[in-house]
Design brief:
Length: about 375
């Protein structure tokens, strides 16, 4: 072999190794999947540029077959971001159809090199202190998905959901993971170590209709992961009709939630009461496995009409005789309970009733709705 060729190869390898070391030294990668986000990108990228974090940062964008000028817009910000010390990695594909959010997230993460990952949606806007405060929190909460409070725009959209995101207590970040609201720290606010992502992930790449964030959140909990929230508003969280969340059906979410409840809670209980003898409580009962249906000792309610009926008969059952479940007043029922009444919808009556029984959330009851 030509000695000079061998020497050049060694030098190239050394240079590549140095480059890899430099890339590996980045503290935080802001990872951003992108699809037809052109109208939001200037505001989103301006906010990344203005982060007050003093460590090293990069922006990793994966374009999931956008048909607008999204990629061109991001490229137009490259010089400004790099002048600020934020390296930029952009890639994507031009297939006829997008591959989905899970795929694009995984690609953005794979091509990035930060020790920590700051998840950013292209239609949202981070406040200047977001990366700094979540990076600091990550040292206090290793093996965690770290979120934050949000400002929802337009103001007043998803009012109850936004209030829940911002007001649930730290311990409820664990106890309320079965509610219909989904992850107790919402995905657009997530921040975690690359190590934790690699242990839990990757995201499901099933595409449209797959709640990849909920599946990842559940898997993180299965792996013993923690959940934490920086109690400051660090993200402007945009609501609009084109958001990918709208492609996931309620029935898909319901099935996943029921299965996770059975796996994590009902498998540990010998018997329990379903709080709500109405439509939602009965639907939960019918969705349970035969083993867990047998554990339901009663429904309870405050509605005298339902209570006076005395029983709920499971007409669709193939058992003979058909199961008949007693319906009791909540004061006559016994814990543990699965609560199938919507939070924040009874003017505080549900919460007062629960408090009157001196019950502990996460031990004596879990919210499901």
């Amino acid at each position: 072999m030509n000695p000079s060729k061998r020497l050049r190869t060694a030098e190239d390898e050394a240079a590549a190794a140095r480059e890899e070391e430099e890339r590996a030294a980045v503290d935080v990668s802001v990872t951003m999947p992108m699809y037809n986000a052109s109208c939001w990108l200037d505001e989103c990228l301006q906010a990344i540029l203005h982060q007050d974090f003093t460590g090293t940062m990069e922006l990793s964008v994966f374009d999931d077959a956008s048909t607008d000028d999204s990629r061109k817009v991001v490229e137009s910000w490259r010089d400004r971001l790099e002048a600020r010390g934020i390296s930029v990695v952009i890639s994507g594909h031009n297939a006829a159809q997008p591959r989905g959010v899970g795929y694009a997230k995984n690609k953005a993460i794979t091509q990035s090199c930060g020790q920590y990952l700051c998840f950013q949606d292209a239609d949202d806007v981070m406040l200047p202190q977001r990366v700094r405060l979540q990076y600091e929190a990550s040292f206090l909460h290793p093996n965690s998905l770290i979120g934050c409070k949000v400002q929802r725009v337009p103001e007043g959209s998803t009012e109850r959901y936004t209030r829940w995101i911002n007001t649930i207590a730290q311990d409820q970040l664990f106890t309320q993971v079965y509610t219909s609201h989904g992850p107790t720290v919402v995905m657009p606010t997530w921040f975690c170590s690359r190590t934790w992502y690699l242990k839990v992930g990757p995201f499901d790449e099933g595409g449209k209709g797959v709640p990849e964030d909920l599946l990842f959140f559940y898997q993180s909990l299965r792996q013993g992961g923690s959940v934490a929230r920086v109690d400051q508003c660090l993200l402007v969280y945009r609501y609009h009709e084109k958001a990918t969340t709208h492609s996931v059906t309620e029935e898909t979410i319901w099935r996943l939630r029921v299965n996770f409840l059975q796996e994590r809670v009902l498998s540990q209980w010998e018997s329990f009461t379903i709080w709500n003898a109405g439509k939602q409580g009965r639907k939960l009962y019918r969705s349970l496995s035969a083993t867990n249906q047998e554990k339901v000792k009663a429904f309870c309610d405050v509605d005298e009409n339902k209570i006076q009926k005395g029983f709920y008969t499971y007409e669709e059952s193939k058992q003979r005789p058909k199961p008949k479940i007693p319906i009791l007043h909540y004061k006559d029922a016994s814990a543990p309970f699965i609560i199938c009444v919507k939070l924040d919808m009874t003017g505080g009556v549900l919460e007062e009733n629960l408090n009157s029984l001196l019950l502990k959330e996460g031990t004596d009851f879990y919210h499901f709705n």
